[in-house]
Write a structure and sequence with these properties.
The complex is a heterodimer of chains A (163) and B (102). By secondary structure, chain A is mainly alpha-helical. Chain A is built from 7 helices and no strands. Chain B contains 3 helices and no strands. Chain B is elongated. Classes of the chains: A mainly alpha (163), B mainly alpha (102). The interface between A and B is large, with 77 and 69 residues.
Amino acid sequence: MFSLYVFILAVLVLMALFTIMTTSLLRAGLGLALTSAVLTVLMFILNTPLAAVFELSVCAGLIPVIFITVITLTKPLKKLEAEESAKEKFHRFRYLPLIVLFLFVLFVALNIKLNIALPNVEMEPDARQIIWNVRRMDLIGQVMVLLTGAFGILVLFREIRKR
Amino acid sequence: MIEFLWPTLIAVMLVFVIGLYCVLVTFNLIRLLIGLEIMIKAVTLLLILSGYVIGHPYLTQSMVITLIVIEVVVMVVAVGVVLNIYTHTGTLDTRSIRELKG
């Protein structure tokens, strides 16, 4: 189980790296969806199924669709511009794999044994009870955030009325 | 339970660094948002891990749901701003929006 878990973690890091390093924006959007999907698997393993379902439906489903919609609404670069842009991008991102590799080796070499004294607490029986009883104010905050987003979009895309 | 901690922390730090590097280095507005998303993924995993380790997975689960809602709203509004910038300037390059009036 532990080796499988570490393998999934490695896949998560590699997917994130692919998302950032790829030259095509469309592939970057798909990479983001795959990163979210791998994160969902980790969430299931770490005993948070409800958040995992949210992550899978919203972050792996909705957000990449939004990104891909924006990419299709913008004009693609011409062939020469695209080649130049890819070359420039390679120059700017070439250090990233080295940095990630260096940090990985550093952290593995450190091998800190975290000895956390776990509190002896009773686990809550259900996520629904937490959401509706303990974190009730969060729901009000979520509704306000959603309204803010909706009004923000209305303001951004409002039509100019002719007088 | 504890043996999951250090490998997951390493993965969280690496994913966060990847997102941060993208945000710092790129000039493309969409890629900037994708970098931000990657950073949020790292924070989500950290929250889930903390809940798992201290024995309160359901409590952090509700926080992560809130985080996901906020993340979606931020991304939708940011994408709207990016589209407006594109219609005004005709490019997604951040260097083209440096010359602001005022």
